[in-house]
Amino acid sequence: MFLEAFGSAVLGLLLGWAALHRLSHRLPSRLLVLSTGVAGALIGDFVTHTALDSGNVLPALIGAAVVSAASLSLLLRPAGRLRRRSAPA
Description:
Number of strands: 0
Oligomer: single chain
Order of helices and strands: HHH
């Protein structure tokens, strides 16, 4: 159980680093991105481990990666300026 949680935390850290490396101009601070990746992976591991019971390491890590990626995607800002058109009067 400990190694599974540690592995999912490392996986979340790697996903956060990859997101920072590829999309640094669209993400907030480095500390927030890395901690969100780790927290999302730990939550995903917990949910998958609870749903599938113990002994399934690979599905738990896949669940951790999915929830971590979903959490990181919530931090993305739009690529360009938002063009807001005013409504005609």
